[in-house]
Amino acid sequence: MAHPYPIREIARQAGVSEATVDRVLNHRGGVRPSTVNDIKQAIADLDRQRSQLRLAGRVFMIDIVMQTPDRFSSAVKTALEQELPSLRPAVVRSRFDFREKGHLREIVKVLDVIARRGSRGVILKAPEAPEVNAAVLRLSEAGIPVVTLVSDLPFSKRVAYVGMDNRSAGATAAYLINQWLGGPSAHPGYPGSSGYPGSSGSPGSSGSPGSPGRDSRILVALSRSVFRGEEEREIGFRSAIRERWPHRGLTEITDSDGLDSSVYRLALDALDQHADIEAVYSIGGGNRAILDAFDARRRPCRAFIAHDLDRDNRDLLEAGRLSAVLYHDLRRDMHRACQLIMQANGALDGPIVTAPSSIQVITPFNVPPEATP
């Protein structure tokens, strides 16, 4: 129980005598376990109060730099603004630099400007590339901590990553899609052959999910493979399919930047080339455009798994066009990212630890209240 507090202060916080505190701290025994726990809790409370005092009146100017479709950057901005009151007594102010697409040199230029101008920290979603890693190094050398969001840069000098375990998310998507599609599983004892209970009103309306039939092909849609987060989701998805459902064909579309016009054209081309595509795993967004392509070709979509609860996905869930959305609590992620930056600035105690966000499977019946417009 190492601590920096006078015995008198601990005793006052715990509501016990100074002699009792002295016995516990020096391991002399003769004190009830409940009293020992009270003293431990008093020290933890004093730690927390000391952190709050350090935060009081401090202003943290944070830069959020992201290459991502507007629907996701808007969700990030909203999540951060909703969390600002919970970060008090610290005051967090933010500058945003969002772009839907662009060359690496543009992101590097923005990061270098921040390094020269100064900032308390950067929350970053950017393609994985040596140029970006070098820019993160320059930020680190300038004393500006970088926290990656949703898509990691593990070989850079970022201080932590915030977001889901993307490989697990991809494997989860594979499981869900194959429950909807039904058919045999290559894994002994695995419940893939039993199908997923549903009705003909489920996405695609081509029959009940889980009813065995021909080997439907799955369309896998990325925005760009240069994002590590998307790459890891794809790896997790393909690995699960290869292990458990090797009879499933996969067709990939990418380099759309998640923009509806590009996604629509690529999805149409894929549908024209493969008459057996009946399901979608959308890693990079543009889901409305993908469904428009299915509608244009009068093709059924029997299962559709997407990511994130942006406005489009909430609407599509409500309309029954998506089977499920893999979701991580964006408000909690933004809160955690800000706390990590405060820790890196010495304003909060504790080790800086990267811990993946929990993956939630969202259907029209369990949309979190904070995700409702």
Question: Explain this structure to me?
Answer:
This protein has 373 residues and is of the alpha/beta class. 43% of the residues lie in helices and 15% in strands. The protein is built from 12 helices and 11 strands. The chain has a 6-stranded mixed beta sheet, with helices on both faces. A 5-stranded parallel beta sheet has the order 2-1-3-4-5, sandwiched between helices. Strand 3 (121-125), helix 6 and strand 4 form a beta-alpha-beta unit. The longest helix has 23 residues, at 33-55. It is elongated and about 80 Å long. The model is unreliable at 188-202 and 204-213 (pLDDT under 50).
Q: What topology, given as strand order, has the largest sheet?
A: 7-6-8-9-10-11
Round the mean pLDDT to the nearest integer and report it. 86
The rounded distance between the terminal residues' Cα atoms is 46 Å
Number of DSSP strand runs: 11
Question: What structural class should be given to the helix and strand makeup?
Answer: alpha/beta
Q: List unreliable stretches of 5+ residues.
A: 188-202, 204-213
Main sheet overview:
6 strands, mixed
Estimate the strand proportion: 15-25%
What level of helicity do the residues show? 40-55%
Please work out how many helical segments DSSP would assign: 12
Order of helices and strands: HHHEHEHEHEEHEHEHEHEHEHE
Calculate Rg over CA atoms: 25 Å
Shape descriptor: elongated
